[in-house]
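Ticket 4471: requesting a sanity check on a complex prediction with protoporphyrin IX containing FE. Repro inputs:
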Amino acid sequence: MTPLFALLWDTLDDRLKLRAPGRKVANKVFPHHWSFLLGEIALISFVILVLTGIFLTMFYRPSIDPVVYSGANELFGGRRLPAAFESIVRLTYDVPGGLLFRRIHRAAAHLFIATVILHLLRIILTGAFRKPREINYHLGVVLLLLAFALGFTGYSLPYDALAGTGIRIAYTELLSTPYIGDRLAFWIFGGEFPTGDVIPRFFVFHVLLLPGLIIGAISAHLGLVARQRHTQFPRVGIDGHRWIVGKPLWPSQFAESATLLLWVGGVLVASAVLVPWADIVLQGPYRPGEVGNNAQPDWYLFWLEGALRLFPPIEFSVLGMTVSGPFFAGAVMPTLVIALLVVYPFVERRVYGLEGEWHVLQNPLDIPLRAAFLIGTFGFLLLLSAGATNDILSRLWGVPIETLTWVFRILALVGPPLGAVGIFAYSKRRLAAKGQTVASVER
Ligand code: HEM
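Returned structure tokens:
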């Protein structure tokens, strides 16, 4: 330690008694495996999102009132544009560094959601959700939903043609909820779409409410990881509950995380320079009444878009309320998928009669039910996502869109159950061949 740093440390320690707890924290052990970096990358992307978001907030105008743009872009010069869209054009062409910050923000948003999803997959694949970590797993499911909401509200803010179409679909979706649809839509959107309230509200959700909730949830999430300690991959002769093999927080893990931060920052800046993320000018402002036929949500919402496209356009009445196809596709199906994610840890424990705590990570093929759950659920979501590209594939392949819709309907209904049954049978045989049972796998 340099003398100046030592003096500062002694002065603080005199007053705050940092040494004893500081040593304990510095010695906390982190297991070494690349898959543990996914949560860290999600965390770093979130920090970059907040920092770049603060810059963007200083120039963004949350309103759809028309204003005349008078900046450097020739296409929009002198035109009346919704204020939100105008402020994004200004950020892009007239604010020094504005385009760079916009692109880093978009790239970080994609990386954040992608790594949260991959992190969730690693947790499920390896069984890191088992007792005593169920609470942290459920907190993670909440974080995943908050991340989707953050992404969707951010996508809406520029009020370009894509954003407006997305908001309109979400509005119609809410309206389709039996009994309370109109009230729900009114509470969230502040009136019939396109209402002037929607952008100011989404702005508050995007820059205040959702980041606040995510920061609170991440703090609790990491607090629980520290309290319950990490899981680790099996190591011959080591009791995973009592011993964790890895690097101490200070200095090894700290150095690794700092390097990761520099890498993630570097890749995001490079991608912002090379990839035209966030090129809203191609889209133009949203004009209610004009329906674009190439509207597509961001990739992580393709599964919802696919469900809306593939579900048959049925409508019927029960007990005086009208139930429609979009309600099943956009509300019932996602609720069932989330419910499945929430209850799965309890189902696995119950089905195999597992007791006690589990700290050693596993190969999912050692747990047939989990392998089937993963293939069934994620296969279904991937096929729905593929269904969201039926218009593009129809143009590319010259196949009528109705034919493709039917192909995806059949694939999404038949493929995942078949895959789940197949992998279940395979893992069961594999386990029996090793002479093991699910309960005899290492903890
Ligand atoms: C904002 C999103 C998230 C962030 C920033 C985040 C961050 C982290 C970090 C840094 C760790 C420690 C390193 C690791 O074990 O990978 C961790 C562990 C964990 N996370 Fe997340 N996470 C997020 C979302 C999720 C989600 C969606 C789930 C699952 C539904 C989840 C479940 C868990 C569990 C169970 C652990 C403990 C794993 C173990 O000890 O092996 N997290 N998270």
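Notes from triage: The CA atoms of residues 102 and 391 lie 29 Å apart. Leaving this open until the requester confirms.
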